[in-house]
Specification:
single chain, alpha+beta, Thrombin, subunit H, six-stranded antiparallel β-barrel, 4 helices, globular
Length: 251
Amino acid sequence: MGAVGLAILLALATGEVSAELPDTLPRIKPAVVAIGTLARTRSPAFRFLATGFAVGDGTLIATNAHVVRRKLDEARLETLAVALTDAAGRTQLRPARELAADPAHDVALLRIPGPPIAALPLRQADDVREGETYAFTGFPLGSVMGLHAATHRALIAAIVPAVIPRGAARELDADAIRQLEADRTPVFQLDASASPGSSGSPLWDPVRGDVVGLINMVVVKRTRAGPSPEPTGFSFAVPVRYLRELLRSAR
């Protein structure tokens, strides 16, 4: 196949994803929630932490373990909470409690009271491939502009081990080498711009509408222009299989 033919095929594939995404998105957004802490004695009472999404029976919220493993202010009666948008477009706050967590793979489940919300299906096969295009929906800017979920496309640039790169060969001591050999957890490297508020966002298939991963790490850089970090265009997602396993163990 010549270069022109390959370019046409790539354009058609991208066009298919682009055409399907607007049709699938209305099924995704109702399940996406903002996760934060709630303390009635402060202003604002709700403080945003990250993104989550409903799974299972609709009263379970999936997010990253690093999001919920923060110390709460007991003196202020601070609790975990989620903010969600109801069918009328109103924002609801519901208390949440940690049900289960897998810090090694950075996934966690919260339980919320009240009626269930629309839950997202999880991909049952581990069939994500490099070069495929997905989407993620969350709150990259937190509550700065109001809680309005944003959606971005994400190319699977690579599937890599979840390890922290060493700067030089001399840093690879015996303990570091053992860690590298033991930790073969794969993560998806995404060619997509995300922000810290995107942590916990579902990575989903624009055609099928099922979740294949959770955004769990965003590479940012500090700038002199202001206190907010600047996205680099690289982010990572943990495969959804670890969330499936956590769901099974929590039942």
